[in-house]
Design a protein that fits this description.
Four Helix Bundle (Hemerythrin (Met), subunit A), mainly alpha
Length: 217
Amino acid sequence: MDGSEKPPRGSAAHRVEAALLEEIAAGGIAAGERLDETRLAERFGVSRTPIREALSRLAAQGVLESGEGRGMRVAQYSREELAQMFEAMHEIEALCARLASQRLTLLARSQIEVAQAECKAAAEAGDLPRYLRANEEFHLSIYRAIENPYIFEIAADFRRRTGPFRAKKFADAGDLVASAESHDDLLEKIFSANSNIAAEGMRQHMAASFLRVLAAN
């Protein structure tokens, strides 16, 4: 199987790929960190074949890159590359906020609010790994609200690639609380049903995040 062929949903390769994607996006695996096939096989209780398939898929998506020898590592980016990625991410996130404000259903709003409640709970507990997972779900729930799978995948791809870098911006529990509180202001603008206000709110949110990421990297 090459990187262009997606493993069947429910297969060992799909399960490994999904788990690693979530961990990388939440910053649980750092940029530049090497992934060992043998250890991954032991961790997931599978042979090395589905591990190789999953790693090949992640490399095709730009999440992983070739390391020393034949190994794979989480992709690393220069400050210039990060700046370029965040420039694109900045506009895509603003578009998602704009469309979400126009298309928001009661169900979508409820899902966003549940994700935000989890962000607050994790922040108050000072639990960084939990907060990173909740923060990912918060943004993904906004993407889902627009009900456009093509835009969703583009936005989610940038979050996957920048996850290890965004995780570094949280230095202490105070940063988690401040981030969760900034979500409240953003949601007020998205829930206002004014698409221009929603887009500008997301731009401000992403600009502040971008500055912290560059400072931490």
